[in-house]
Amino acid sequence: MTPARRTRRPARAAGALAVATTLLALGACAAPQPPAGTTTPGPPQTPPQGPTQSPTQSPGTSAAPTPSAEAAPTQLLLATQAERDTLAVVDPAVRRSSAVVDEITVGTAPWGVAVDEGSRRAFVSTAEGVAVVDLDTRERTDLFAYEHATTRLAYGEYRRGGLGLAVSPDGERVHVAVSTGDAAFLETLDADTGEVVSSVPVGLRPFDVLVRDDGDEVYTVDHDGFTVTVVDPERERARAIEVAPFGREGGLASFEKPHYAVLDDDGDLLLPYQGRALARVDPGTGDVTTTDLTADSHQHGVARADDGTLVIAGNGPFGNAGSGPSIEVVGPDGADVVLPTDRRHETVTVWRGPDGEAYGVLAGGYTQQEAWDGATVVPLAAALDGADESYEITIPGRPQAVVPFEEDRP
To answer: What SS3 state is found at 140?
Structure first.
């Protein structure tokens, strides 16, 4: 592995950055909607062949996490298997041929997943509808229909159906972004009955959905709209905030578009761009400020640990980013560590290991070429000390989104 680059990011806000965009005509962020005739009628009988790769030898040298004497309830992961119709239950501490301990059939081409620990349920956005999963029995108990449903089921980034998804803090509502191909809507469903209680137009291809802590506002990250849409689902009102620190030149062919976000303790949204800028969006005022990132790599997923540490997936030299794939870890004190990697990743989550430590987990189901059947696990404390102790686990089926859940109740 190339040694980690460790810098300290200035803790200052800067204005919008004006940097010329270098356009590349390929892949997830650059390609427009494919022709209508390229759909797949149903789930493949076997995982599709092609660019998807399997994990190789672990890049780091760390051992699997060791349980602490006073361990909290075991935390596992849920991973949507985008090339299949299943949701994987994953133990990141398992480093054998596969870290998957169970698979649950949920529906065609699952994308997003969210957990409501109170009801012990998970909700999964598929091309068909929102699947409801009982976490204790590990079975799908329902499939809620979209208001803007499609009969043209397909796989891949451009398929129609549910994309980003989140559950309200009280567990009563499920908010799912639904793409019809030429439009998108935030649909809010009753978590028990599946009734669609509101539907609001949002920006094109909303990769991510987040909910404010009080549940009153929902945010969609609109990949092809260069926007974050602030939605009041009760009043069915929405307003878009442009988030384009490098401009909108190139439109659908641009790589400088938003992908995923996290909320900080102040309720602001944080969105990484190109390993060069971290945009902070105040959803109340619409103000957008930026601070510097150092990875210089086309970035997708981001996750935030309880102490404020950020973990960001970088995927290489696309657009105005010039460096290779990486994992960027930004500490709460501004320390900024870049771990170069040979892998590309899509989404990121933070997992609490059996040793009580925080680990970043980056899913390998990258939406462009070079996706692979696995995830990278990164001990965050070691990374901030400049040590790359990451290791890989196997998750078949092109893992798209990952979230933690408690296997054992407290």
So the answer is: strand
CA distance 210 to 69: 35
Q: Is 383 helix (H, G, I), strand (E, B) or coil?
A: helix
With 0.85 as the threshold, say if the pTM is over it.
yes
Q: Phi-psi category of 253—alpha, beta or left, where left has phi over 0 and alpha has psi -120 to 50?
A: alpha
> Which parts of the chain register pLDDT below 50?
9-28, 31-51, 57-61, 69, 410
| β strands within 168-248, DSSP E | 173-179, 184-190, 196-202, 206-211, 218-222, 227-232, 237-242
Q: What is the DSSP letter of 233?
A: T
Helices first, then strands: H and E counts in the chain? 2, 29
Please list, in sequence order, all residues whose beta carbon lies within 8 angstroms of the beta carbon of residue 116, skipping any fewer than 6 positions away: 122, 123, 167, 171, 191
Q: Return the SS3 of 382.
A: helix
CA separation for the pair 295, 3 (Å, rounded): 13
Cβ atoms of residues 272 and 313 within 8 Å: no
> What is the Cα–Cα distance from 203 to 223, expressed in whole angstroms?
8
Amino acid identity, residue 64? Answer: A
